[in-house]
Structure formats: structure tokens, C-alpha cells
Design a protein that fits this description.
The complex is a heterodimer of chains A (about 260) and B (about 425).
Chain A: E1 2-7, E2 12-18, E3 23-27, H1 37-43, E4 48-52, H2 69-82, E5 89-93, H3 95-106, E6 113-117, H4 140-144, H5 148-156, H6 164-185, E7 203-209, H7 218-226, E8 231-235, H8 242-245, H9 247-255
Helix pairs in contact in A: 2-3
Chain B: E1 2-6, H1 18-21, H2 36-55, E2 60-63, H3 77-87, E3 92-95, H4 107-120, E4 124-127, H5 133-139, H6 147-163, E5 168-171, E6 176-180, E7 194-198, H7 202-211, E8 214-217, H8 222-239, E9 250-258, H9 262-280, H10 296-301, H11 309-312, H12 318-323, E10 327-330, H13 332-346, E11 350-354, H14 362-380
Parallel strand pairs in B: 1-2, 1-11, 2-3, 3-4, 4-7, 7-8, 8-9, 9-10, 9-11
Antiparallel strand pairs in B: 5-6
Helix pairs in contact in B: 2-14, 3-4, 13-14
The chains are: A alpha/beta (about 260), B alpha/beta (about 425).
Chain lengths: ~260, ~425
């Protein structure tokens, strides 16, 4: 994966690029792209993968001009445009799935294939999505991973919360990343997508870990009800971070869009 | 010096094992712990105490805003201030403050403050906090990364509304109004004095300096820990070439308990201090600081010790709290001595005295308050004689004010009603 920069009207955008074949744009979740780099490497065996970072993620500057859902949606279209892509496969995970859905709904004739991996964007009162903005680092693995214990080990590797320098760097990164994500996810990760889903014309795969405790799989059916012809693929023994836990299965599901 | 007697209005009935059984005193606290019938007693008791302090020579009585919080029962500080306006006479009403970014439209705050200023005859000291992350983000749902932008816009709207003498259109990002024309407007012109509670962000320092607002550090951590932050403020005042470094440009909240002797102070108040610091401040760390609420610059500056889990959430003893300055307690002599130390080291002209502490009963609170007013306050009055005429940060009441409850006796009313007498 190569990390590059492209400039839109509003922001300098960092993106990963790798592979050959049909272009595929992958939009990361609120946790950032780091954990998905292995998945993207595998994906790049099949596709020409572009994975832009939301401004504020990784080493990129936050963009104060991105305030609401429409800003995020159009910004990401600007990125696709600047990358010179026409009708790429649009794939998004969690928050990225929410943005991808909005992109497909606002410009239905420009997206023919859509892969939504445990997307955010809908809200069911009877299945409230836990508040990631009030979680402490040690609480996250329980919501993200199928195997929470293994996940906890992985997430705490190389971290030392009692080291003030590390803690400050962690807080800065957290403020940048989740501060940006909060514009569309806080306090409830819903910005009216339900009323726009009907516009989506793309062939759509809804890919969900069977053990997703953050956005439970019942949301797959809700998306399916809204998007004509959408298919649901449930991945066994995967939690919310299915691309990390079961990359081959997720790629297999995306490949069904061919 | 200006002394304001402050009441946070803590709920006094949290059980002994509250910390063990509940994750937070704030935001998602168990609703069943509130009893409205007891609430009736609590509110009236606290209002009585504020009125009592108002008669003892304090310059101001103070209230603030919190939501879904068992140590702060004032979601609407303006309601409490309105009640105080009618039952007090010459004391300032310090509302520190109303969270201007939380009202839709924020013009509501301009209107309510104007009402308070009119009812009280110009006794309002107004506060415009950004609000804590717990209140602003978690309880009231404001997006953390947009909170400050929304706050600045609300501030601009209120200032313009108070200054205007004809309707104007306000095309904000968060508030769009075709006809801004508040009725009434405040007595104090161009506006009541404004205090800004802050937690150490550079932006807030600059905001206060540029607008001639008083910067208030409302911590419970005491003056020893507050010193670094206040020094940061005074450095900034110098860096930005403010016309003066009047101590009234700054305020500080301090927990204070006074008794006849140091030992007596511990005997009388330790229990209630422990209730406050160990039960009321039991805030779930996940609610302390929503990502995006603080600016990157502020985090990088690293003045976050106030809310770090180590300092805020461990069980603290009387001795630790007194030694580290979280609580200034003891005989009038001890308290005077430490208050002097605080006032000089922090260079603060406005002191917000936290004297109703935790589940402290009325009689103890009155005792401590009276001792402070009679035996401590007079000795601290003239610590900054060169700035004694600095009235920029305090209210300017009307010389001639209406007396509440001054209707004539019905028997004195001649008949017919309305006839000239």
C-alpha cells in the first residue's frame, strides 16, 4: 500500500493506493484505516484499491469546513473525482458504509456497485447502537471483536496509557479522528439516510459479522428493506470488524458484485 | 476583592455505597435516586442559604448550570436567579452561567438575562460558559467538534442583540433569525459584566482578554493545582498586551469551611467534604471529555490534569484535600492566611466561595458562612488597593430600586379604583 496525497477544493486528503484491476474505493470506519491495511492488501490482489482518509485521520489535518452529512458526502465525491475514477466499486465499513450509502443515494446514476460492511446510518429504537463516544479504550474490544479477549490484546499491544507522552499523543489522535467522526455520528449515528435509501440504484451487498455487537446484524435487514435488490451476506465467527477478522470472506462477498 | 457565595446545589441523599453501585453522578445517573418531595425541601433550603449569604456582606450570590447531575440541581440557573432577585436587595446575582450554545435560539439567554437585570435593578453579573462536555455534549447532544463554533456564533448574536436599537437580520450557521429585536434589554449598558468560566484553553484566554471579560477558573481541585493554569492566563494577558493586569480580570472557585479552630473544622465538616469529593465527583471518565470538544492546541498544551482519572476519581481524605488546597478549612486565622496565599498567587479579584458542601446541613453551612463573612472577608478586602476602582467586571445597580412586595394595603386604596388621588 502506498500512502499518497490528493488535494480537493477543501482539503488535502491522504489515501492509500495499491493493486490493479477495476477501481474500488474503500471508506474506513470511525477507528481509522490502520487495522484494515492487511484486508486492503488482500483486496488489492483483485482490485485497484483507493482508500482515502477522512480529514483528521492518520497524519492528515482536520477540515473545519466539513460539518454535516452533506459536506462529508460531497467531499468524498470530490475525492473520487480528483482521483479520476468513473463508477468505481464503492465499499465502506461502518462510518464509511454510511458515507458510501449517502454517496450512492445522492448520485444514484454514478454508482453501480456498492459494498456496505456493517454500515452505520440507520437507527432502530429497539436496537440502540452503543455510544462509542463514551467508551473507554478497554471497553472497545468487547463491542468490536468476535473474540473480545484476542481483540483486547491486539488493541493494547504497544500502548502504555500511564506514559504521559503516549497518553497525550493518544488523546490528540483520538480528538482529531473521533472529533471528525462525531460530526456525522454524535450523539446518534443517524442523519436521515433511511429516507434516502430508496434512491440507491447500485447493486448492493450488505456484509455483516454474525457476532456484531456494535451495529447488530438486525440492521442488515433494515438496510435491505430500504435498498431494492440488496443482498445480505452474514459472515460466521466475525464481529463488527469483519474485514479484520475475516478478510477472505468479506472479499468473497464483495466479489459477488462482479 | 469581590466575594460571591456560590451554591452548586448538590443532592444530599446519595447513599454510602454510591460509588460502588453507580458508574456516574452525571449524565446517566440512576433516575430513581431523585425524590421530588425531598427535592422540594432541598431547593427551598438552598435558596434560603443563598438569601442568607446575601445579607451577610458577600458581594454576590452565585448559581450555575448543570444537567442530569446530582451535585448540581440547576438545569436552569436563571430560574433560581429570578427567585433570588425578588428576595434579595443589594447583592449581585452572579449567574455563572447560562450555556449559550445550548439554547435555540440563543437569543433566549439575551432575553432572560435582560429580564433578570431589569427585575433586580441592574444586579446581574452574567456568565457565558461553553459548558462542560458532560452537559453540552452528552446531556444536550451538541456535536463536540462544532461546540465552540456554535458558542462563538451564539455569543455574537447575544452581543449584537443587546447593542441594537432596531430589528436586524442574523444569518448564522446555527441560528437564522429575520427579526432580532429582544424585549426587554438589560439595564446595564452596553451590557452586564460578563464572566467566562474556562478550563485552560488558549482560545478562551484570548476571548476574555479581547472582549474585556473576566476569566473564571471553576475547579474543585483547589488553588495549589490551579496555579499553573492561572499563570498561563496571566502570561497570555501580558503576551497580548492587554491594557492592564487587573486582578478582576480573573476569578477562582474555592471550597472553604470555617470553624472556631482547625480541629473543629475537621470535626464539623470532614464528613460533608468527603461526601462531595468522593461521591459527588464520581463521574464516569467516558463522559469527561468527548473527542472534539477540546481543541487540539489545548490538548497539546497538556493542562488536563483536572479531569485525569488519577486526580479526580480516587478516594481522598480530609488531610489530603486540605493539604493540596482543594479545600481551605480551619479557624478564621488559618483560612485568612490560606486565602491570602490563594489570592496573591493566582492574582484573582473574584472569589467564588463554595461553602454549601455536599450534604452539609443548614446549621453548619450558616456557621461556616457567618464566620467567613465576619472574620475572614474583612481582612481580605483590600489586597489590591491599586485596582479598587476597577468596576469593569462587576454590576452597576440602579441607585433607586423598586421594593418587592410594595403594594399598598387594600384598605388604603381609595375608591373608585383609578381615580386620581
Amino acid at each position: 500500500m502506498q500512502l499518497k496525497t490528493i488535494r480537493t477544493e477543501r482539503a488535502a486528503v491522504r489515501y492509500y493506493e495499491s493493486g490493479e484491476g477495476h477501481p474500488l474505493v474503500f471508506l474506513h470506519g470511525a477507528g481509522g484505516v490502520d487495522m484494515d491495511l492487511g484486508f486492503l492488501d488482500s483486496l488489492a490482489q483483485k482490485y485497484h484499491v483507493y482508500a482515502p482518509l477522512v480529514p483528521g485521520y492518520g497524519d492528515s489535518e482536520e477540515c473545519a469546513e466539513l460539518r454535516d452529512m452533506l459536506d462529508f458526502t460531497l467531499h468524498t465525491w470530490d475525492v473520487v473525482e480528483r482521483l479520476g475514477l468513473k463508477d468505481p466499486i464503492l465499499a465502506g465499513f461502518s462510518m464509511g458504509g454510511m458515507i458510501a450509502s449517502e454517496m450512492a443515494a445522492i448520485a444514484p446514476n454514478d454508482v453501480s456497485r456498492l459494498a456496505l460492511i456493517a454500515p452505520a446510518g440507520l437507527w432502530m429504537d429497539e436496537h440502540p447502537i452503543p455510544d462509542i463516544f463514551a467508551m473507554l479504550p478497554y471497553e472497545l474490544p468487547g463491542y468490536l471483536f468476535y473474540d473480545a479477549e484476542a481483540g483486547a490484546k491486539l488493541m493494547s499491544a504497544g500502548t502504555n496509557m500511564s506514559d504521559p507522552k503516549f497518553l497525550q499523543a493518544f488523546l490528540v489522535q483520538n480528538a482529531r479522528q473521533l472529533g471528525a467522526a462525531g460530526k456525522i455520528l454524535f450523539p446518534i449515528p443517524e442523519r436521515g439516510l433511511a429516507s434516502r435509501l430508496y434512491r440507491i440504484k447500485a447493486r448492493t451487498m450488505l456484509i455483516w459479522g454474525e457476532g456484531d455487537k456494535l451495529i447488530p446484524p438486525v440492521y442488515a435487514r433494515e438496510f435491505q428493506r430500504g435498498i431494492a435488490g440488496a443482498e445480505v451476506v452474514v459472515i460466521p465467527r466475525a464481529g463488527h470488524v469483519a474485514p479484520f477478522e475475516k478478510p477472505a470472506e468479506v472479499i468473497g462477498a464483495i466479489a459477488r458484485l462482479q | 476583592m469581590r466575594f460571591t457565595w456560590f451554591n452548586l446545589m448538590p443532592w444530599p441523599y446519595l447513599q454510602d455505597d454510591f460509588r460502588e453501585k453507580n458508574r456516574s453522578v452525571w449524565v446517566d445517573i440512576d433516575a430513581n435516586l431523585f425524590d421530588p418531595v425531598k427535592g422540594h425541601e432541598v431547593y427551598n433550603n438552598y435558596l434560603d442559604l443563598l438569601e442568607y449569604a446575601g445579607k451577610l456582606g458577600f458581594d454576590g450570590i452565585g448559581v450555575n448550570e448543570h444537567h442530569q447531575n446530582a451535585y448540581g440541581l440547576m438545569p436552569s440557573p436563571n430560574l433560581i436567579a429570578a427567585s433570588l432577585a425578588r428576595r434579595t436587595d443589594d447583592v449581585a446575582l452572579v449567574v455563572l452561567g447560562a450555556s449559550i450554545a445550548l439554547y435555540n435560539p440563543p437569543l433566549r439567554v439575551a432575553e432572560e438575562f435582560a429580564m433578570l437585570d431589569c427585575i433586580s435593578g441592574g444586579r446581574l453579573v452574567a456568565g457565558f460558559p461553553v459548558g462542560t462536555s458532560m452537559d453540552t455534549n452528552y446531556c444536550y447532544g451538541t456535536i463536540p467538534g462544532l461546540t465552540r463554533e456554535k458558542y462563538r456564533e451564539a455569543h455574537e448574536l447575544i452581543k449584537r442583540a443587546w447593542a441594537a436599537r432596531e430589528p436586524f437580520a442574523f444569518n448564522g450557521r446555527y441560528t437564522k433569525l429575520r427579526y432580532v429585536n429582544p424585549w426587554p434589554r438589560p439595564i446595564q449598558q452596553p451590557h452586564p459584566p460578563i464572566h467566562i468560566p474556562g478550563g485552560g484553553s488558549l482560545e478562551t484566554f484570548d476571548f476574555c482578554i479581547d472582549n474585556t471579560y473576566s476569566y473564571s477558573y471553576l475547579s474543585f481541585g483547589g488553588y495549589v493545582r490551579g496555579q499553573a493554569l492561572m499563570q498561563g492566563y496571566w502570561d497570555r494577558v501580558a503576551e497580548r498586551n492587554a491594557p492592564d493586569s487587573s486582578p478582576y480580570r480573573a476569578g477562582f472557585a474555592q471550597t472553604i469551611c470555617v470553624a472556631d479552630t482547625d480541629a473543629e473544622a475537621e470535626r464539623l465538616y470532614a464528613k460533608h467534604v468527603s461526601y462531595f469529593y468522593n461521591r459527588c465527583l464520581h463521574v464516569y471518565p467516558g463522559f469527561a471529555d468527548a473527542p472534539g470538544y477540546r481543541t487540539i492546541k489545548t490538548i497539546q498544551k497538556g493542562i488536563l490534569s483536572q479531569y485525569s482519572p488519577q486526580s479526580m476519581f480516587q478516594e481522598l481524605s480530609w488531610k489530603e484535600l486540605v493539604d493540596n488546597g482543594s479545600v481551605i478549612a480551619g479557624s478564621p486565622e488559618t483560612v485568612t492566611h490560606r486565602m491570602e496565599d490563594l489570592i496573591q498567587k493566582l492574582r484573582v479579584g473574584n472569589i467564588f466561595c463554595l461553602m454549601q458542601i455536599g450534604d452539609m446541613p443548614q446549621d453548619k453551612c450558616m456557621h461556616s458562612t457567618r464566620l467567613f463573612a465576619e472574620k475572614v472577608m474583612p481582612k481580605l478586602r483590600n489586597l489590591f488597593p491599586e485596582f479598587q476602582d476597577d468596576g469593569r467586571f462587576w454590576c452597576k445597580p440602579l441607585a433607586k430600586r423598586a421594593k418587592p412586595g410594595a403594594l399598598p394595603m387594600e384598605a388604603e386604596l381609595g375608591s373608585p379604583v383609578g381615580a386620581e388621588r
